[in-house]
Design brief:
Length: 196
């Protein structure tokens, strides 16, 4: 299904193609009862609960980018970040076998009845809330993803929080002006109430 429906599988090299090019002979042995030498014994324990978590690295203004590096069929590398429309389909090909675009900045919001674009844009949280919504008489492949769905939701939550923090970081002047306006209004209201 991926080879016939997913345009990224045709455009970029797959792991299988890379392995066939190298033609190296190797074996992979997975032994759950063994741990590598000089490693903590419980570091490689099998997970025992059905939870997924995310650690968002970064300090103050420096955050790490969550990029995907792709190799095209002509051996050229292409890097895309988490706000690229291809990110979701490339990171989760089993959830998006037809390579549907994901969230990107400045998606135009449309009016529900007329389908005309408005001046507003769709936020990341609104985009993913819409994508995860259960609808009557509609099949949502995402909701059948089980543990992969859990990972996807946590990953997209990290994307939403990253977008929020980025907005706050890049719009400090406007946000502080808005706080000043509210402070001035409160001061004016107290002065008016004091004169009554």
């Amino acid at each position: 299904m991926l080879h016939s429906n997913n345009r990224y599988v045709r455009e970029f090299k797959t792991a299988l193609e890379r392995l066939e090019q190298k033609r190296q002979s190797f074996r992979i042995i997975i032994r759950a009862d063994k741990t590598p030498a000089h490693e903590h014994q419980r570091c490689y324990n099998r997970p025992k609960n059905n939870e997924v978590a995310v650690l968002i690295a970064g300090h103050d203004e420096t955050t790490t980018n969550r990029d995907i590096v792709l190799e095209k069929q002509n051996a050229q590398l292409q890097r895309i970040n988490e706000l690229h429309p291809w990110y979701d389909a490339l990171q989760y090909p089993l959830l998006f076998p037809c390579a549907e675009d994901g969230y990107r900045i400045n998606i135009q919001q449309v009016e529900p009845n007329s389908r005309r674009p408005t001046a507003k844009t769709v936020s990341a949280i609104a985009f993913y809330a819409y994508r995860l919504m259960v609808r009557a008489n509609s099949f949502n492949r995402l909701l059948r993803g089980r543990m992969l769905l859990h990972q996807y939701i946590v990953d997209m939550y990290a994307k939403v929080e990253s977008e929020r923090l980025s907005f706050i970081r890049h719009h400090q002047r406007e946000l502080r002006v808005e706080q000043y306006v509210h402070l001035a209004m409160t001061k004016l209201e107290r002065r008016i109430l004091g004169n009554l």
